Prior knowledge:
Layout: H1 7-10, H2 13-16, H3 19-22, E1 31-32, E2 38-41, E3 44-48, H4 61-74, H5 90-102, E4 107-111, H6 114-125, E5 131-135, H7 140-147, E6 153-156, H8 161-178, E7 182-187, H9 199-204, E8 212-216, H10 231-234, E9 243-247, E10 257-261, H11 263-270, H12 274-277, H13 284-299, H14 301-320, E11 333-338, H15 341-354, E12 357-358, E13 360-362, E14 371-376, H16 384-402
Parallel strand pairs: 3-12, 5-6, 5-7, 7-8, 8-9
Antiparallel strand pairs: 1-2, 2-3, 4-10, 9-10, 11-14, 13-14
Helix pairs in contact: 4-13, 5-13, 6-7, 14-16, 15-16
The structure holds pyridoxal-5'-phosphate.
Residues 113-115, 118, 139, 141, 187, 191, 216, 218, 247, 249, 257 line the site of pyridoxal-5'-phosphate.
Amino acid sequence: xxxxxxxxxxxxGPLGQYxxxxxxxxMFPKLEGEIGNRMIFMGKERLIWSLNNxxxxxxxxxxxxxxxxxAAKFGMAYPxxxxxxxxxxxxxxxxxxxxxxxxxxxxxxxxxYGYQGMVSVINSMVDRRDVIVYDSEAHACIIDGMRLHFGxxxxxxxxxxxxxxxxxxxxxxxxAETGGGILVITEGVYGMSGDLGKLKEIVAxxxxxxxRLLVDDAHGFGTMGPNGAGTDEHLGVQDGVxxxxxxxxxxxxxxxGFIAGEKKVIKYLMYNMRSQIFAKSLPMPMVLGALKRLDMxxxxxxxxxxxxxxxxxxxxGLKEAGLDIGNTESPVTPVMLYGxxxxxxxxxxxxxxxxxxxxxxxxxxxxxxxxxxxRLIPTAVHTLEDVAYTINAFKEVKEKLVRKEYSTExxxx
Length: 413
Ligand SMILES: Cc1ncc(COP(=O)(O)O)c(C=O)c1O
């Protein structure tokens, strides 16, 4: 190989290798129409279970109105430039104050995209003397943030607190030599399996070890806790979480995110996060739209109640029907079946074409070989009829799989 472009035809990568047989259907599918529980996929209406529109805000008339008014008043350009140079506004600052108050922190700072923001939060918080200790199922944005870290990083198997303690001992020993500190990173809700990071147990380890804790609560913000303030609120450990990360891309059905914590730490991040300093500020419709959404999360608890009614009905129904939904404690609902990639595509195809159910499919290497994970995301705009219909469909699909009715070849579409 002597052309960097050679790889584009020789090795498309772990996902790209399936491009020919899956693009437009299993990968990069187009969902059309109004965002909701039913949308159009390949010209036909389907029951949609794959959007993180947890509270149903994406298409809420009040949200649509606020977005449209902000776009009419400011356009998509304002404010121009990065926050530090010329992209600051009173509304950005207001949103930061309101977010901080909502998640019970002194201050917060907006992030243009959650992903880039997280990369920079990690990159800014550690130097080569510091050690990062992180959960093995950490999201790609955490992994990418750590790739920029010049110091050591120690991984612990997912939610294995005993092993985390072993890593903390190693890290404590090492930082005693380097003079650095320790940053532990976990997620609040794990987005594939729906189980929660063991925040209580991790925070309890602060009694024995000196570290700071960063929690990525992309799926927990707005869905978890009595006020929707997140997984740490749900578990009663807000004081022990030093840095709280949320995105607008899920419950808020928008774009952007934020990091919240102590005032001095947020001020430091504001002046050091390269992905924010050297990138354009969030446009006004995103900021005003986020203010509106946050207000609705605060003042309309019925949205969360509706979400959890659907979540509980779906998860208990699937379990009663004999389906394995793992250890989820959040709205994220994985259904675990067993088979290869071929069978996984056959099942997905059957669900989409014969049951008109659209959900996401996850296979190796994201989950262990032999596991087929079909991920359902219940929302406040689903109905109990949607739930009953889906449980029955999954029951039938599992029976067909057990009877070996699905071919092991990849399904054509
Ligand atoms: C756990 C987790 N962290 C971070 C992100 C990135 O957020 P954003 O979509 O705002 O870039 C996501 C979104 O997919 C996520 O699931």
